[in-house]
Amino acid sequence: MKNTLYMIGNTHFDPVWLWTWDDAMSSIRATFRSALDRMKEDPNYIYSFCTPPVFEWIRKTDPAMFEEIKSRVAEGRWDLAEGFWLQPDCNAPHGESFVRHGLYTQNYLQDTFGKRATTVFNIDSFGHAATLPQIMKKCGLDYYVFGRPDSGEKELEDTLFMWQSPDGSEVMAMRAGCYQGMYYMITPESMKAMCDILPDMPHGYAFVFGVSNHGGAPTRKCIAEINELIDAGYDIKYGSTADFFKANEGKLMPVIADELQVTFIGPYSNDAQIKSNNRLAEYAAIRAEIASVFAGVAYLSGAITFAWKDILFNQFHDILGGACIKNAYHDARNLHGRALQNLNEITHTAIQYITKDIAMPGVGLDNTEWNAVILNLSGVDYKGVVEAEVQWVWEHDWYEGDIELVDGSGKIYPCQMIRELSVITAFRSRIAFYAEIPAFGYKTFAVRRKNTPKPEIDFNASLENKFYKLTIGEKISVYDKVRDCELLSDAFAMTVRQDEGDTWGFNIKSYGVKSGELTFAESSIIESGSVFTTLKVKSYYNESIIEQYFTLYEDSSVIDYKYRVNWNEKHKVLKLGFDFSGGAKLTAAVPYGSIERGFDGKECPVGEWLDVSAADKGFSLLMRNNFAYDTTENHIGVTVLRSPVHGDLRRKPLDEKADYDYLNQGITEGSLRLVPHGGDYVAARIPELASAFNNPPVVVIEANHGGSLSPDGQFLKVEAKTTMVGVLKKAENGADIIIRLIEYGGKQDNVKIYGENVVMKKYEIKTLKVNASTLAVSEVNMLEEKV
Asked: To which CATH superfamily is domain 5-263 assigned?
């Protein structure tokens, strides 16, 4: 079969970038008008565009144009090749977000056009996680088109290949472009040159042509040039991405089982706040779905789906990559705020629908004013410290003494009195206590006043427990008392480095040299007691203030760390460093999976955890607010923030007199959890612990009352060794329940759920449907259809 050059007409469109969404809305109407007019002029021309939220802009602002688009889709002239809700960042989001990109897009296309996509067109995103092929395949998406990394950033055996996930799933992928470079550089000469070498290639090739970024369809000039070459006998034809891929099925191409990452580093590290808000919103959506399923009340699936779509929009690669103008982030913050508020209302309404029916242990206990219900809305057993705050005035007498908890069996739980969020003496009390809450379960405690004085804080307490000793001086060392060895010779070290990169880091390959030293100001114990001790360290750097908080627990073998940075620097990057002994293996979380990487000095994206393991000892960093790191042989530098100019695509030197907007000015906060362990991350169940760290228990304070539910309970029990639950939700259609399982250990696992045994293959993401009436379990794909 001869090889053909396919010409794929397309508009690469950024709904937000160096403009805001309302600006983009007006430009896309002109773009679509142009694309539709070209179709009238040339019956052979095929156009490709598919972004559901942008389609909805047109449906609302120009219904007649939308109907015209639908007619072109029906006749096959307008190709629906994008596959995801929009072109997202493919590193920072949760794995479940990519499932929703596929699920909601395919549902939208089927409901609106009566068709589904087969291609994910993701030409401009900044790198692609290795787990995407499995998610795509299970969303009915067989093909992938990308532009970055280009040939200068990552060598590939071929531009057309089978892209394979760690579980073995494959999609056919193409690095798009033209003979001279990216798609906007197509010329008659480049098309002729490609046709000249096609006979010697093992497969055909495709050029994507059109005007990019702010809209603009393929032009009359470009279409005329293509037609002239077709008329001259060149083996060129118009087509869709699916046409191209189908024409090359069965032809010789390599298999690539790897992530596809760019070398420029900005999008991994820019704007910690937008990435943190994204993660908060993702887990808010996951919690809302779980709470609604367990409550069994009228399920607000439409409202949750609406919120998910807000979250997905903000995952557009330039938004989540911190590459937009400053004004765009006011809109992004508001969009996340809308999603978070709606989701949290759903969650707490569902939770309190449950707690009203729980028999509280405080009933019948003397001197009991309140009850605390701790709900674990995650698939991971929780073992750790919980904080709760109760109200005295005006419901009861003023009180500032000690407190204890009592569970339904009469067991007493000591509490540590900590600073309440208000500053009104004896008005409210805040407590911390150690609790164990089963996955998808709850436990209740009676809150009992002891009528003894509130313990005083020991301001001379040391940062040491039965597990570790932290020595804080010029360096912060972590000594593992259980294994009798130094775990980290220098931990949590804040370092400032030069950063002359533009917003994307196009003009640099790595961050610069260390830039000065932090000046120590003071340190003090701010909390101490029977549950935990926290030390605060304050330092200065030029015009910036850095506050660090270290917490050790009496009954938990983790170390919690928080930072609050008031940053007022320009062209600097702030790193959080960890030094360790050599000979270790590094594994980084990616969406619904992980990947092993080397210690090569590169800035890399990371998901919810990062692990360093040696033969006899190791540690993991569980993260909520950090999404990038770099390495040397014995060092990890977690990125806290960087401060380039907003929207700086460095074409010429910056104007030294200009008043630019700089990223990450002002307050940035974050938290990490250090989890030392023996063995590796699988034995330590690090993916599960990271999920629980990002989805902590929810506390509800209840008055004394009876109820039909026991004081302690578990709604769903899943037994597994190396498999975790990613999501629990109502099916898109009907009353059934959907459960998503993820095997993270790279081995077969047998999972027991609702009395049935489910076999998980290595690194498999499996979706189950549970019949609402019979509780029978069956496998479905990610579109919730029978496999």
From this structure: Glycoside hydrolase 38, N terminal domain (3.20.110.10)
